[in-house]
Each structure stands twice: as structure tokens, then as C-alpha cells.
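Input/output pair, single chain:
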Amino acid sequence: MLSLKTATLKKKGESVVIELNSRWHRTIALGAIWLLQSACDRLWFALDRSVPDWDRADYLTGALNYANALEHPHWFSGEWWTNLWLLSSKIPPGTYLATAVIHQIFGTGSDRATLVNLLFSAILLASTYGLGRILFNPNIGLWAAALCTLFPAFYRSRLDFLLDYPLTATVTLAFFCLTLWRSRTYSPRLHTRPPSRFKLPPSLEPWLWAAAFGMASGLALMVKQTALLFLSVPLLWAAIASFKGRKWSQCGQLSLGVAIAALVIYPWYRTNWLLILTGSKRATVDAAIAEGDPSLTSLDAWTYYAEQLPNHVSWLLAIVSIVGFLLYYRRRQKDLSPSPVPHPWRWLAIYFLGAYFFASVNINKDFRYVLPYLPVVAIALAYGLSCWRGKWARSVRWGTLGIAVLLVLNHLFPWGFTLPGSALLGDRADRRPYTGPPWPHPEAIAEIIDTSPYLQTTVGVLPSTPEINQHNVNYYGALADFQVYGRQVGTRLSQIDRDVRSLDWFVTKTGDPGSVPEDAYGAISAAIAQNPDLILQREWTLPVREATAKQDPSTLQLYRRQPPTVAVEPIADGSPSLPVRLDRAIVPPASPPGVPVPVTYQWSGPWEPLQRGLAIVTWENDNGDRWLHDRAIAGGRLYSQIDTSVPVRLVDRTAMLPPADLPPGVYRLQVTYLNRETGETYPIAAPEVSLTIDENATPTPAPELDWVTQLRSLSQAMPRGPDALGPVFEEVARINQYDPVQDYLAQAARSLEYRLQTQPDRLDFIYNLTLARVLQRDPQGAIAALKRATVLDAQNPYAHAYLAFVHLYDWQPRSAQKALDRAFALAPDSEVLQLLSAVSYLMQGNLFGVWSQVEGFLPDRLKTMLAIAFAAFVALSISALLSIFVLHRRRFGRKRGSKSM
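Output:
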């Protein structure tokens, strides 16, 4: 190991250890570790030609979304910030934002995105070194940092674009800051504080490190919510120790750190808190059931991560370190100067055991979920290596390191042979790059764009394998300036017909379809192959993986609709100053009410007004009866990044839905143009076209209804209350697959606001607008709409309940309670209202109010347990307050007595 020259000075009976070696030398050594690791990682990426699988592609797309948003920032716009946080509703955007900066500097692509791991590696190595240095000495810190580069769990994570490695780095940084804060607040005799390069007053330094801990904790929580599982136990331990020691200044410092962390995470968590809570079940319970993870009542659930630990750190490093620790621990202790942190091994154990406990409590288990506690394991193993004594000690340490490096390189690079002892790194050590033929994703995306250059396209992806799935198709579409989106369809038999009718492009695959239901996959594959309107555009032979080398190569097939739903062609001799025109509207001569009616609109005009335009379409008879077909021109599918001065002609094939109670008669078309950005409106001269509504007419086969019309139909269920909303949100989830940017919601909201200017008392419009605003996560817009609904539908308790719910979503519990009081007057026994009221009281801190609302739902045994727990909490709180009061009185009395003397 690196030798440290030290001198011991005696002063006033205190032993002070002064380090004479240069901090600059240690920085060089740490930097060399980082550079060698980085060079190895970048060489691996240079060789790798694989495509990202599900999670990796999803996270890479998230980083591209933030990079795209940061290209045109509006730093002083509250709406822009809200939209920024809404880009990632369930996953904190810390890693995305860091990667977005990388994209701004180095460009896009999966290899460039992984450059962000170099930053997180620097944070991890520096924090691990700092922990080892504070708790023991700089040598152990350097060796711990070196071990972190060799752990199989870490080098596998560095070569992926996942959240766990950034989480490990930021959590370790936060724990380092907390440890450093603890060292600055602990200064008993015979102990010295670690040297600091900052010349700060001693009384100010703990406040600085407490603030640093808060900042680092906030950043960790902005990477992944599970950071709380790793930091809560040591933070709670430090807080209890400060409280028991009556060190109120330390309590204030920790409170400052918590407040800073809360300020860091507040904007994103405040915006997305409801989806975070609702998404937690899917990410834990549902995922654990799907993956077959052990139940918490079984022993396997509590030993799972212990069994994985050798695979995390490798058998080689673990065995050599443990042997050294067992043989030479007592001799090693004599060489160490006292630690500036009280009981360093206890402090590490608090962190590790707390993290292990909470990770085991999480029923969804995975190899990578516990990476943040491995730096502590690295420090323990580095200490074990340092324990070796005798003439062979140096050979054991460096020999172990050299063998580990060779084995890691053997598991990373395709040398063509396997070194003896490769199993010493564990069962999860292999991470060789894919060097075979390229995958066809970029070619498939280019084929779609070349065929439909003016359109934003959603492609339905049927298979779900690591190499061919909706996430990586979507990612490569995002790399093409977000012109193509990939979404998985065909997983439910009940939705197959609508899936096939709703999209123009599909990706299928022969052979193994992956993790999709076989019956549904077979049904939708047959439906696409047999549909006369879908033709095979192109197919590719897929590379053969080693694991499937005995199988025949499968093919990737790309289907498209012919004729397409929307077709665009430039008008070469047209004038760019022409207004938007509706050249034709083709409908059948007659149709019964309540049945979809096919309609084809043929538009022409300049590109920009067409792309921004909403068509306010009304079909009206002579008696004033009407129905509407408001939507964006071409359904909002015109690609916004196209910049052309040449006018275009487009054909838009869709369907509309006359209401079932529409009186029979002849209905004629009226059209108004509405610019969704400027608000400009003007009538469009509609062609002479009419449609007869006749109950005895034969329905004409029609394509799928446009999504704005489907949303309008779904909103009719809102007045019936929450029980009717389940099918509504299930259908909304299906529609969202077809429109990945949910532009149909913006179309619906903008057109309804225009309609309500002239028809303010249309309650169906108001509920439709409410649903659109709620789905857009626009609480202020939803509140404004629901206030109008509670006036027009004042006797409906659900209108008031909806208003209360949106107030709660926007963290306005007092306003929510007022709406709930009005709802209770109409439906005093509603369980939904009681639950909302309990949430309102909880947000206001009224525990008695919460109890009064939920006690009717709880079984008697649980009521008794909660009552006992609440009584114990009250008793402990009163005892703590009395203790503080008594201590304060005693201190005050002693001060008065000393003054009088």
C-alpha cells in the first residue's frame, strides 16, 4: 500500500497526528484510478454495437426529452418550469438533466449519453475516498476507491444507462457529507479533526457541511426516490444522538440540511406527487409479482441480497479481505490514529444494516437495487486488505489487485479465451460488448420518415424482446428529432381490433415475440398480415445472438397503411400567401344517429397555418340541431419541425359521431379556422356538402373515431361519479398509446374554450374541458372549469367532489374542505367523500379529523392498534417537551447561581 510518513507531536497531554505526505499526490492517485477506469469504459463502448433494452432505452429517451426542452429555455416562466417537471412524471429527472447537458455539449446518441457516468464515477470515487480517509486513513480511502472500479456490480452499471449508478454516486456523496459533518461536531480529547483546506471559523464549519449534506441528499432524491432508504437511518441516528446529548445547535444544523434537501426536491415532487404515489404500486408490488420475487414472510426475502453480495463485490476480493481482517485485525488497530468520527465501524454498520433492511422490505428485488451500500462494503474490504502483515503483505494486496484487474478485463473484452479462475468474480461478472452486425432500428425509422416526411408518426410495436421493443424503437425515433414514436400495442385481446384500426405503421417480428401474451400476439399478427389495408413496407433479417445461435434467424417486418390516414403533398406552383381552404368534405349521403360516419377532409394552404390550425366543425340542420367535429387539421399529426414555404395539399381520413338522440334531418357543414397559438379565428368557406341523419339508413363502414371525439364521448360518464371513471381512464390509457405527446388533449381543451365563449352553459362541454385539463395535469384550468360545473350542476355531489380532488392535487386542502362540505350536504354517507376529507384533514395536520373520517373503514383490531400507537406517540411527545423544559430550567438556574456568586 502507499506509505504515509507521519509524525506524532505531544502537546498538553494530547496526541496529535500530523500527516506530512502531500494531498496533491493522493489527488493524482485518485485521478489516475478514474482515468484508467474511464479509458476502459470508453474502449468498451467503442466496441459495442448493441441496442438498449427496455429500461435503458426509456431512460435515454427521457434524457433526450430534457435536452430538447433545454434548447429553448424560458428561465423566468413558471409555465415553462412546470412543463419541464412534467416531462418525467414518475422518475425524478436528476440523471436526465445531467445527461441533457452532456447532449448539449457532445451531441446525442447512447454512447454520448453514457459520458455522464464519467461524472458520476468521479463523484463516487471521490466520496468513497473521502469516507475512508475520514473514518480510517487516506490509504484505505484510496484502496476503497480502487475496489469500487473492480466490483462487478459497479463496472456492469457503468456500462449501462440506468439510474442506479448515478444514485450510488449521489447517495455516497450525501453520506460522506453527513460523516464529515459528524466529524466536525465530534471533538473529544485524544481525537483530532481531519484537516480542512477551508479556513472557516470552527463554529461555522458544521453548518456548512450540514448544508452540503442537504444539497447532496436533495440531488440523490432527484435521481431516484429510493435514496431515502439509504440515508434515513444514519440521518435519524445522528438526529437522535444530537437530541439525547442536548446539542441543540447540531439539531438545528440537521434541520437546515433537511430543509435544503426539501427545497431542492420540492418543485418536481410538488408537481408530480400523485403520479409518484400511484406509480409506486406498479413499480413494486406489480413488478415483484410479475418477476416472482419472494414474499416478505419467507426467509429468501431477507437473505436475497446477502446471497448476491459475493456477486456484487467478487469472491476474490471478499475472501482475501476477510482473511486479512480475521488474522491481523488487532495488529492493524495499533497502527491507526484515533478516528475523528466516533465508533467508525458502528457508523458504517448503521448505514449498511439500515440500507439492507429497507432494501429487503421492498418486495421488488433486483441485483442493482442495493448498489448504494457497496461503497461502504468497499471501505470494509479495503480495511481488510490493509490488515495483512508480514513480508508477504504487499504481494498479497497488489497481487490480489492485479488478478482482479485481469479477471475484470477478461469479463469485459472478447479476447477469445477465458482466464483460469474467472468464476472468482461471481455469476454476474460477464459484460462483453456486442460486436456483431448492426440492428435495423435506424433503418426502420428512416424508412418511416422517408415515406411520410411531413408527418409525426406513431408506430405500433408488437414484440417485446431486449433488442426489439417499444422503448428502443421510440428512442431511435426520438434521435430523429422526435418525428417517430414507438408504442406497444396488441397486448389485450379486447383492444386488438381498435389497435389495428388506429395506427398507420406496425412493427412485427417472426420467431420469439418476447414478454408479450402469446395469444394476443398471435391474434394481432394475423390481423395485420390479413388486413388488406396494411402492406409490408420492408423487412430485415435480424442478427443472431449467441444464446440463440441454434435457431433460424428471425426477421423484422414493417407494415404501413395504404392509403394512409393522412397524406401530404406539396403544391409546387402554389402561392405561400394563400389562406387555409377546405377543398372537399366527402361523406356518405345518409347515416343513422349514434353510429360513426366516415369523413374525408381535403385541405390546402400554407404549411404553418395548417400545422397550427384547429378546425371548429359544426354540422347543423335548419332547426338549429347540431353536432360538432372539432379537432386539429390532420388530427395534429403534421410534424412541427418542418420548415417549408411551399403550400401543401393534405387528405385527412377519419370518422365523426352524430349523437344517438340527434333528430333526423339534413345537416350541412360549417367550418371555422382557429389558430391554437395566436387565437386568430376566421370562417372557412365550406364546400356544398350535406349529410342526412335517418334512423333507417344503412351504416357506412368507418375508420376509427378521432381521439378528440373519443374523449368527448368518454367525458359523458363524469357526472355519474367515480364508479364510472374506471373504464374512462382505461380507454384514455389506450388512446395515449396512439398519441404519445397527448396533443389531442390540447386540441380538445382549446376548441372547448372557444365553444364555451358562445355557449357558456353547456355542461357537457364543461365536463369535457375538465377531463382534458385533468389529463393534462393542469390543476388551475381544471379548477376553473369545475367551479363552473358546480354552479350549473349544483345538486350533483360528484361535481363538488371533483373540485375538492383537484384542490387536493394542487395542495389546497382548505379550499378542498369547503367543496367537500357542500358535497357532504348532498351525499352525507358517501365513502369517497369521507376518504377525500381524510386526505384534506391530513394535509392540514388535523389527525383527529383524519380519524373521524377513516374509523368507519377500519376493522376493530386495527382501530385498537392505531389508538394505542397514537396514545404512545402523544405520551412520548409530552415527555420530550417536559424533559426539554426541565433541562432549560436547570440550565437557567445554574446560570443565575453562577452570576450571583
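The first helix runs from residue 23 to 47. The chain is about 55% helix and 10% strand.
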